[in-house]
Structures are given as structure tokens and as C-alpha cells.
């Protein structure tokens, strides 16, 4: 009878120690995954900024396009062109130039004709 109590106490103590070790490991892993998400978000923002700059560069090099009044936004490969252009033909030029940039998945064109 005394042996059963000893085995029960030793077994219980081992279970408690094992559960404490598992808890320590899981809580230690949580901040690392949070940091990973933060660094992933930074990488996405950096990629979006790089894509935006590449599209702006392509627009500024496009012959016959007045790119100074065009704003470019980029998010996950989707490029949005906003602003004004003086002629309807420039709307298509801007779209084609943006679509030709590596990394652009799609282009949403919200350009309007300026009345000035």
C-alpha cells in the first residue's frame, strides 16, 4: 500500500514537471512568431514601395505622357493610378506603362481628364 502511494506521488510529480516544461516552451515561442509577422509586414510594405517607385519611374520615362500629375499607389502587386492627364490618349499610355513593370499583377486606372 505504501509503495502505491510512493509511485502515485512520483508519477504526479513527473506529470507536473512535464507540464511546466511544455508551458515554458509554448510561451517562449509566442514572441518569435509575433516578430516574424512584423518582419513579414515590413517586407510587404518595402515591396509595395519599391513597386510604386518602379511604376513612377516607368511613367516618367513614357514618351507623350505627362506623369507629374499622376499619383501611384501599390499593394500586393495591384497598382492604382490616380490624378489627371490633359488628353484621353494619356490614360491608355499610363495604363500600358504601369502594366509593363515587373511585379505588377493588375492596374486600376482612376485617372481623369484635366480641364485646364
> How much strand content do the residues show?
15-25%
Biggest sheet statistics: 3 strands, mixed
Radius of gyration: 29 Å
- Number of helices, counting only DSSP H or I runs of 4 residues or more: 2
Task: Tell me which oligomeric state these chains represent.
Answer: single chain
The SSE order reads HEEHE
Number of beta strands: 3
Walkthrough of the structure:
- The chain is of the alpha+beta class and 116 residues long.
- The chain contains two helices and three strands.
- A three-stranded mixed β-sheet has the order 1-2-3.
- Helix 2 links the parallel strand 2 and strand 3 (106-113).
- The chain starts with a helix and ends with a strand.
- Residues 22-30 have low confidence and may be disordered.
Q: What is this structure, in a nutshell?
A:
This protein is of the alpha+beta class and 116 residues long. Helices cover 61% and strands 19% of the residues. Strands 1-2-3 form a three-stranded mixed sheet.
